[in-house]
Specification:
24% strand, homodimer, Phosphoribosyl-aminoimidazole Synthetase, Chain A, domain 2, 60s Ribosomal Protein L30, Chain: A, four-stranded mixed sheet, 322 residues, 10 helices, 13 strands
């Protein structure tokens, strides 16, 4: 079976394209028509075997996750998904694998009305590269450089379960208690927060980022881009039941430097508290206020229940760290 | 050195962004503002070591080619480049390699005012995935399904030198004559035909495709999408000096099924001949009329100098062919 036949069989799936897709798969380019006056948001992520997923990963979960991490970038800008491209290097043409991968991919694509509009398939070591396109009204994008001193700091959902699951799968001693399916799903099938992100953009939120490298490290990107500092009220952080039994050092590590959370970390002025609460309710997404933005550039303080600073040593995940 | 530092050092290059880039590298998404009312053209290509380039490839040539093959897709739609994303898996952080790669990449990006707006870098077997964005006026995109019986068939530049160079590098016996730098450059540093493509879109051209898999095979995609047939006047095909000394079978193979040409194959009604000639002159791109579109769906006839059909056996390049 040839390359083109592979693509046709498994990737010509009829996600409802909405009005934005003028021309989908099968030409030199896809053609999209964004809503009048809107800006286009684009992001690319590449997933590599052995680094972003285990060689024996369930292909259906992989299809879901590959798109989820990209949709999460749109969510963090407050952009509405329009479509995506998929470039795929495969060591062999394994039909069962492709069918399961496509199921996971299109399950999530359908749920977000985000159609596959083009891509590429080639032979090579397993590698997935997805680029997503979304749209957002001018001035409403949730940029990293938009945090202001005095803003509240919020998080959607909760952090740490993906990291706990990863350590469990690696056989790390402190992570060997049995995990629920719900906890495992946080690593294997993350839920991008697009409905929330879109509502935040019109609710007056300022800055946002999606949590891929860990709460503290990703917050650092906002602080650096905005030239501000922050305080996190550690005891305001929502803690999943699976994390409550962990040794305290590992619990903080998971919560603050876990990685792979795909939750939104965002800021908004106190005047927007009611609008933020409405956005959370309307999108059925739990949102917790966990701290505030301060004026000191780059200074992150972690406060205990008495408002006193704690010194924690944390390391953000880095693909090139040795 | 960490992942983010790598990206910052080598990929924060100041290509003049024009007016379209609202927000470039460094946030969850880039933000683009297409011209009012325009459609967005997008395309992704993935290049893998050992399949699309040799392991010892000159990294500067590779940087050029990775973007060139994507720009060529925009050219084939008649779309003006707005920007691109790059996702890169690297086996190690080799600074000299990255610097040379970036030189080749940004040399071409600058020439097309097509800035890098985002991307991803990770450790893994060498893999490059570029997604390009362009804009085109509604109704002007050069779609594969737009060829009409009676259209003239044109090609830009000439085909076959990339294939000859590939066979030369592979040590194939019929390809061992010394090659000029100009011939080698057709494989290693192809020239995407964007200026021509943009002018063709407003000159009334109908269908277009860029030649990546070989003239005959890529023409087949137009015939199939448009439900038409075609005749190629073989003796009208421009033949590079390097191909003139080849055995006749290999010459046809290079010309008609060479692959990696990145020329435009397009159709236009005879009434547009003057406009097409003007587009060729204005873009300083050689254009040759090589045949015509016929009414018989899917039928491709190759005609000799006397207008008589020739039977040639040709095979299009396929990454999954065994």
């Amino acid at each position: 079976m040839g390359e083109f036949e592979l693509i046709r069989r498994h990737f010509q799936h009829a996600t409802d394209p909405g009005n934005a897709v003028v021309l989908g798969i099968g030409d030199d380019c896809a053609l999209l028509q964004p809503s009048p006056g809107h800006q286009l948001a684009v992001s690319s992520d590449m997933l590599v075997e052995g680094r972003h997923f285990f060689p024996d990963v369930d292909p259906e979960a992989l299809g879901h996750k590959a798109l989820a991490v990209n949709l999460s970038d749109l969510a963090a800008m407050g952009a509405r998904p329009l479509g995506f491209t998929l470039a795929l290097a495969l060591p062999r043409a394994d039909i069962d694998w492709l069918a399961a991968f496509a199921r996971g991919l299109f399950g999530l694509a359908d749920a977000h009305a985000c159609p596959l509009v083009g891509g590429d398939t080639t032979r090579g070591p397993l590698n997935l590269c997805i680029t997503v396109f979304g749209e957002v009204k001018p001035g409403q994008a949730l940029r990293r450089d938009a945090a202001r001193a005095g803003d509240d700091l919020y998080i959607s959902g909760r952090t740490g379960e993906a990291r706990l699951t990863l350590e469990h799968l690696r056989g790390t001693d402190w992570a060997m208690a049995p995990l629920s399916d719900e906890t495992r799903a946080r690593l294997e099938r993350p839920t991008p927060r697009n409905a929330l992100g879109i509502l935040l953009a019109s609710a007056g939120a300022h800055a946002a980022i999606d949590l891929s490298d860990g709460l503290a490290g990703d917050l650092g990107h906002i602080l650096s881009a905005s030239g501000v500092g922050a305080e996190i009220d550690l005891f305001a952080l929502p803690v999943a039941p699976a994390l409550q039994a962990l040794p305290v050092a590992q619990r903080w590590e998971c919560l603050l430097a876990g990685g792979d959370d795909y939750e939104l970390l965002f800021t908004a002025p106190p005047a927007a508290r009611e609008a933020i609460a409405t956005a959370a309710t309307s999108s059925r997404t739990p949102v917790t206020r966990i701290g505030r933005i301060t004026a000191e550039p780059g200074r992150l303080r972690l406060l205990d229940a008495n408002g006193l600073p704690l010194a924690l040593s944390l390391r953000s995940f880095d693909h090139f760290a040795t």
